[in-house]
């Protein structure tokens, strides 16, 4: 009964009052779906009836694959082609807008049209700049602002979504850029919408090169950074919106905020570890922020926290070789347990992103090289 009640609350919060609210069952058993192309990320509608998967083809042509939930089983329904690659996604809290970062621009799609197979689901795209490497997107809870990490341009682009929709998705919707160090990727907005957290894989070249290269021909490089950004400031003066910066291990690539907004979890891919930061401590001073290192396995990328706050899961990609196949790794007992419990689930084929269905229990993983989307009910504690 608690699960049903939780889903009902989510639906009431996320779905437009003009929509007909419904709730679809979640998979009761582990399942996987083969897709055409390489799935990057997956986000579910609040009613659990649809899953939107960003897919990149062999020639970098992207699409959004729409999966329909039929009696607890997700099945491919249709795909909406994009004019560029498809990478990190963000679904607005009101459930109306989907943003998909993709190379030189970020595509925006109307979710209602996307669900019903309309050819006009693609509203337009916001330009990030040639060669910018737009890789991740984050929409603020009020759906006013879109942040996009431009991995190769050393910046985070800030867009006015209302202006974008009224002005025809041209460059005028750009508010400005937040300067970043080398290779910004991960983005997460705090539940109250006050803060944006962002990772950069490497700090400035003036920092000491303490991280080993991830690939054989690479060089030693500085550790990456975790930035805390004032959202209100970023909406008017992005260049001066960074409030504080912390060292965040070797090649931090994703960040997730706990449901209560009190903790941050960061995957340090080059260091083969998951990092835990205490936000209250960070507000007191940088020396109080980092509270944990967890060496879960090779090359962690995606990270997701269960809605009940009891578990955090990561995608161990094994991206740069080694003798271990990819897998999903979890830490349980985050709330009050005397000792954290480590868990693992098989997921070979470059698991890239992880997220949870609205039931708060079923983990979704995109297996990039295996061309599959995997569904796994996480264990109760």
UniProtKB/TrEMBL annotation:
Keywords: Signal
Coiled coil: none
Gene3D superfamilies linked: YVTN repeat-like/Quinoprotein amine dehydrogenase (2.130.10.10)
InterPro entries hit by this protein: Haem_d1_sf (IPR011048), Host-pathogen_enzymatic-act (IPR051200), WD40/YVTN_repeat-like_dom_sf (IPR015943)
TM annotation in the entry: none
Signal peptide, first to last residue: 1-21
Name this protein carries in UniProt: YncE family protein
Provenance organism: Dyella psychrodurans
